[in-house]
Design brief:
4 copies of one chain form a homotetramer. By secondary structure, chain A is an alpha+beta fold. Chain A has one domain: Thiol Ester Dehydrase, Chain A (Roll), CATH 3.10.129. Chain A contains 4 helices and 5 strands. In chain A, strands 1-3-4-5-2 form a 5-stranded antiparallel sheet. Chain A is elongated and about 45 Å long.
Chain lengths: ~140, ~140, ~140, ~140
């Protein structure tokens, strides 16, 4: 539990701004890449979850703390973990690091509600539950 | 015919890149704003065209010629006109100008195919035809 | 103090995603629009603050709570206020509403550090201080 | 000459729009990825070219022809080649394919002017010339 799943992406010119660093909203796009690749590494495709099981992981809250700027052409290491799993919600934690140096650039968190295509909350389908064992009071305490 | 429809937008920080100018792909987003506001000024809503009439103005070709950089916080004047109108296709021409000086920053063109929600080409519904009179051989010659 | 400054923007096609709603990272771009227009309404240009006074309002933290989806072509009301003002930091609070109905779509907050162009923290230049009176213990308590 | 350089990227949720396909401006971002990875595979870094040699590959023209929609989570194959190389300009051609099926999704072209950081055209520095042998009348004829 609370394992980090890792993936990388390279900073695009389009992601920089005139301050010469990555524009702050793009970190949330990287969080999304982290979630999707976490799902793939766990063993399922988010696309299929939407299309075959009418289950959307809809964002309810997002936050990011920026520590160091991400720079053009940097290889970015996106580290994602599940920090809370309830019947209808999932919470993820993120670390964004510069791959070359390991330097921590940002940390973040998102909270999601499982919804159907009409945006109505629903219980996470059983077939996905094994990837997201319910967070117990104990594990919730342990996770920072 | 060939009237320019005008609208403005202000350059966002997010749209700049580390060269200190607007990133080139964003001009295509401005073209889209130009098309949608052209439709609104003509008298209909593109959103309704999609939702009520299952007609999508799907892009088939886009081009842009960049002349001067667009800068952060500039008010951008987007000038759009219909340059060709056929039973299943529409062509638009664009001028992007710095509002304050009138300076021409870019020109562009897009070609679109009318499609249904399954991406199948269809004839433009009759109710929209009056906004897009068919281009005749003569008018086609006249339009640069 | 704690006045809301208001501006609007219309949802672009580019801002929607395949769920049919505005992609979550774009709310942070709207926050940025809110900040910049707040500065303009207060009486100064953020662009000049960067270029003439070497003072960048660098983001340190951002958070957003999503309540209702923003939809294509909606006119979005962005309400921004300064919630904390210290010698080197500024905090902003945001409300994102659907203009037509007044419906609250999201709330958010960002914390910023004033930096020079080398990304070194600095005190907010005196000429801008009058727009950002220092938050006292009292006003901090009053601001939610 | 005219070799294709290849790289891949996976379609992000952020890149889709409410039509359920990739928004058209994003193809120009993929072209940029294609250029930068072409440079890396040739043996130099575009970032260094900007920072160490004050040479920016500034876009003057871009065009794209869209054939099939790119879909969420698709692995996209970006194929890039140099189609023209002159003392101060470079032209690139692109193919965008769905990696899994090989299907051609789009073709495109960009023309660039080598500029210094003040946006003044300049001759491509000698150290980069070997990567971009001057296009002769013959090779220009051969390249479609």
């Amino acid at each position: 539990m609370n394992t980090f799943y890792e993936t990388t992406t390279r900073v695009r010119y389009a992601e920089t701004d005139r301050m010469g660093v990555v524009y702050y909203a793009n970190f949330l796009i990287w969080f999304e890449i982290g979630r999707v690749e976490t799902f793939r590494q766990m063993g399922f495709s988010y696309k299929e979850m939407e299309e075959a099981d009418d289950s959307y992981v809809v964002v309810a809250e997002a936050s990011c703390r920026y520590r160091q700027p991400a720079l053009y052409d940097d290889v970015i290491l996106i580290r994602t973990r599940v920090t809370e799993s309830r019947s209808r919600t999932l919470r993820f934690g993120y670390e964004i690091r510069r791959q070359e140096t390991g330097e921590l650039l940002a940390t973040g968190e998102t909270l999601h509600v499982i919804c159907d295509s009409s945006n109505r909350p629903k219980t996470l389908p059983e077939k996905y539950r094994r990837f997201f064992p319910l967070t117990t009071a104990e594990s919730a305490k342990a996770s920072p």
